[in-house]
Amino acid sequence: MSEDRHPLFMPLILVGGMIFGFGLGFSQMARPEVVLNFLQFEDFGLLFVMFGAAIVSGIAFAVMPRIRDSAPLTGDRYERRLKPFDRNVLIGGAIFGVGWGLSGICPGAAYASLGVGNVTILWAIAGMFAGAYLQGVWRSKRAAAATAPVGAD
């Protein structure tokens, strides 16, 4: 990423986050019970919210690289950054899905849920931070074990 960002970069990130949070609150997706109803095939409103986001994002990702060579506020070139579909993606996605199903909330909606007055969601947010921290510790230990000397004479 470019270090010489446009001065409006951070304020626009804030505005984008506010629009995202407002949209989650307005669509009721910041309420865990609505998300759980979706996961139990009782309310398909979340599907329409996700399709709306996918359509807007898809159009932006298809059109912007044809209009400009680089992002207007960062100067970073538009390029595809594909992550291979591997074992880690599959296992991580499954774990994320279990957490989403148990709590009824995903990370973005959890913060928006605070904005609509759901203070008990702090438990889920604390769990997300603890889980991410534990995963980081686990990954660091695995990396250290992989680079440790095999044996000493």
UniProtKB/TrEMBL annotation:
Domain of life: Archaea
One Pfam family matching this protein: DUF6691
Key word Secreted present: no
Transmembrane helix as UniProt keyword: yes
InterPro entries for the chain: DUF6691
Record field: transmembrane: 7-26, 46-67, 88-110, 116-134
Signal sequence, renumbered to the chain: none
Keywords for this protein: Membrane, Transmembrane, Transmembrane helix
Name of this chain's protein: YeeE/YedE family protein
